[in-house]
Amino acid sequence: MRKLLNWCFKGPVSPTNQSLSKSQGSMGETMERPSAGNAENLNSERSDENMNNSRGSVASNIIVNHDFSRGLDSWHPNCCHAFVVSAEPGRNHVVVTNRKEPWQGLEQDISGKVTAGPNYRVCARVGISGPIQSSAVVTATLRLEFRHSPTTYMFIGKSSVSKDEWKTLEGMFQLSTLPDRIVFYLEGPSPGIDLLIESIVISCPYTIKTEDTSTRCFGPGDENIILNPNFEDGINNWSGRGCKIVLHDSMGDGKVMPMSGKYFASATERTQIWNGIQQEITSRVQRKLAYEVTAMVRIFGNNVTSAVVQATLWVQTPDLREQYIGIGNLQATDKDWVQLQGKFLINASPSKVVISLEGPPPGTDILLNSFVVKHAEKVPPSPPPVIENPAFGVNIITNSNLYDGTTQWFPLGSCSLSVQSGSPHILPPMARDSLGDHEPLSGRYILVTNRTQTWMGPAQMITDKLQLYLTYQVSAWVHIGSAASRPQTVSVALKVDNQWVNGVQVEVNGDTWHEIGGSFRIEKKPDKVMVCVQGPASGVDVMLAGLQIFPVDHQARFRHLKRQTNKIRKRDVILKFSGSDSSSLVGTIVDVKQTQNSFPIGACVNRTNIDNEDFVNFFTKHFNWAVFGNELKWYWTEPQQGNFKYKDADDILTLCQSHNMEVRGHCIFWEVENMVQSWVKSLSTNDLRTAVQNRLNGLLTRYKGKFKHYDVNNEMLHGSFYQDHLGKDIRANMFKTANQLDPTATLFVNDYNVENGCDIRSSPEKYIEHILDLQEQGAPVGGVGIQGHIDSPVGPIVCSALDKLGILGLPIWFTELDVSSVNEYVRADDLEVMLREAFAHPAVEGVMLWGFWELFTFRKNSHLVNAEGDVNEAGRRLLSLKQEWLSDAQGHIDEQGQVEFRGFPGSYEVEIVGVSTKVSKTFVVDKGESPLVVSINL
Question: Which of 288, 330, 574, 582 has its CA 20 to 30 A from that of 252?
Fold first, then answer.
């Protein structure tokens, strides 16, 4: 059967002479209409089997007569001829012939069948015939016609097709707005070459409804949005980011072969670490959806045997803001293919998205065998861990009291162990706070002599005594011998299989016993676990007494903290009612309900987050303070000297102000050298001093009165860049100048590992010494910042640090709190430990979470809300605590016209229920120790 048609489009713009025009589609940028010679490598073919599978799933196909079973019904040749050929029963194809221009092909009007927003998948079976020796490119295109603006063209995808073969052309498109007319067509081969088409499917694989009632359409979970992911179509759809891309079936005289398939690609001639292989995925990704990335990679050449390979996403928004998102990285080698994995989420509607691999040193090739990017499957919530007979408070160390000499103990290395007498008989304070009443220690200790290495000391195997997901507290008395001429570090270290983890440290001098305390948790079943005491220099003896490792009962501690919280956080309130007929109010029921606790609980936010309305809704609803992740840091606001970038900070500040959220300024300077931008490092001493002054003047003048706090010079216990280059007084001068420029802001020190006992550089004692030194130099230090990036927290250890720092009389804030566990119930417990300890301690005046949304947190497995907006158990625990810390009361007005209750500071509503009327009033309870009298005039 043949049906011959001749139809020519007469539109407002000649198809043969396209000018640059603004695309209305998902590309979101000005683009030239693609042709066979210049179409961007955005899409490629899939296997015939994939196409055949799609042939059976045409219920959602918006193309009419997709397989030409009804001839050319609904199809039109574009200024050329077309006829249908029945090659076999039930299988037709169309021949588009008499083509005089590359853009001539077959088209169908799909107006009214697609909508703005969803992603649509295009899958077509195409071929060519005619006088051609090699191959030709077939392209899928949309023509978008508008009544009052020029016609534009949207490129969808292309396929390189050889004579006498059928190939699959595949691509996706998305419309941001709806034009008046939408026409889909296939085009591309050179004039004189016939275009063959067997079938065309345009579908939205499936659709979901979101909370905001908008529609999202995306492919099945196994749908890879990377085109030509295995290089079966050469390097089509791939390009080099500042380098060259080459296709291989082997390299290195056959030593490097594909791990799968026939080919792999290399990014070669790399001159910068950011050079690599990339693919644009703009039209195939959607905002607010999480994607999983899996790539098989290795490296080659330049005498580099191991290097980090990084997967990166470059996103450009319609307002030309750029963002680089780190997806994942791993240490790749030149020996084997390794699997790189990661996840990403795009918050804003992008105009362009490019995914790439980068990272190794210049001259080293990046090899890529396969690349998969899929919509991430939802991970089911982790169940609460099953812990049988936790035996809280029971020491798992055998022969801790040394009644049996050194039985169960062994020397690590060639040192010698002996048992001596004369150590303390009482438990160290932090253990005593956890264990309560406890029998005295034996007074015996292990003496370690003949130490020739720092790692030598007493050890014991504890593998069979540990349970997964339990938090264990570590406690002991330690001492060093008189051979030490200066203080030494002693640590209780844990070797899990072949890895040393969770070192508990203390700095010890030779004249007394010192408490050492910390914690650990194991979340993956180990083969061997050994505990060892080590650390001092060789030749220095170590003494160990009363080592305790025991599981911690968080719930028992929580009961204590609840009582403490009610004592220190609540205030007695007297509601005194008055009015024209107040005597008639006696006995009237009064309901008091707190609507907001004024205790600051805030969170970190980045500029990209505020493009996600789901993030903003959770953020503004559940937090009352904010801190910027990066946008106020010097390397962000002035990446190159004189090139200032404040817009990101301004955007976040505007959002916070619109929701009456207070904001911390983090940070003016960062003392750790690796965090100082290169142009600052290159300055001479005088120029650096000037740059520091300019930074202070510029930042604090611009934002005067807008930030309640500033972290003046971040992490001074762990870095010394400015002090090394400008002298000791620079730190105090930073505080003094900041105070002069903005006297309303409280100026903080800020550091990490202060509260967990694992870092001698930032022990509470070292932090106190540091703060007192600044104050002696005249620095107006107004607050103590404890970052709080903590693992397996134990209440008494955290509280001990707070007690010590509280001696300074300064407000203490947890400025960057996060906890991490693969199990969200364990993570929730850790978060509750930290929040309860903070809320129950009189010196703590606020808590800031360092992120809460998956893929936008500092540490993995620390999020409270999953990437696509589901609140997990840790997030629910936060909300539950916030609800617990709201006070409700009910009473009757007494003869003095009063109702008394005890409640947390914050905002309240009071409802007076009379016989015939109901009156509502609001009031605020401020922080204070004496009873507050609130007068309510009715």
Answer: 330
Q: Do residues 317 and 578 make contact, with C-beta atoms less than 8 angstroms apart?
A: no
Per residue in 805-824, pLDDT tens? 999 999 999 999 999 999 99
Give Cα 929 distance to the centre of its chain: 40
Nearest to 120 by CA among 35, 207, 194: 207
Q: Write down the H helix ranges in 66-196.
A: none
Token readout for 760 is 């001698």
pLDDT digits (tens, 9 = 90+) for 682-736: 999 999 999 999 999 999 999 999 999 999 999 999 999 999 999 999 999 999 9
346: nearest Cα among 612, 615, 651, 629 = 612
Contact 667, 714 (CB under 8 A): yes
Q: Is 45 a catalytic residue?
A: no
Q: Which run of H or of E encompasses 207?
A: strand 206-209
Q: Which residues have a Cβ under 8 Å from the Cβ of 834 and sit 6 or more positions away?
A: 788, 790, 793, 798, 814, 817, 819, 847
Catalytic, out of 755, 816, 824, 845: 816
Mean pLDDT of the chain: 89
Under 8 Å between Cβ of 102 and 36 = yes
CA 308 to CA 364: how far, in whole Å? 11
Nearest to 151, CA basis, from 174, 180, 177, 172: 180
pTM: 0.78
How many angstroms separate the CA atoms of 818 and 850, rounded?
6
8 Å CB contact between 647 and 675 = no
Give the Cα separation of 571 and 91 in Å (integer).
82
| Alpha-carbon gap, residue 582 to 577, rounded angstroms | 7
> What sign does the CA torsion over 376, 378, 383, 384 have?
positive
Long-range contacts at 767-774 (CB < 8 A, ≥ 24 apart): 767/717, 767/805, 768/804, 768/805, 768/807, 768/808, 770/716, 770/717, 771/808, 771/810, 772/808, 774/731, 774/732, 774/735, 774/749
Q: In Å, how far from its chain's centre is CA 393?
A: 35
Distance CA 139, CA 160 (A): 9
Find the catalytic residue in 280, 515, 715, 845. Answer: 715
Q: Which of 49, 50, 90 is nearest to 67 (CA)?
A: 90
Q: Are 68 and 84 in contact (CB under 8 A)?
A: yes
| Token pair of 689 as six digits | 């001093």
Residue 338: count of CB within 10 angstroms of its CB: 16
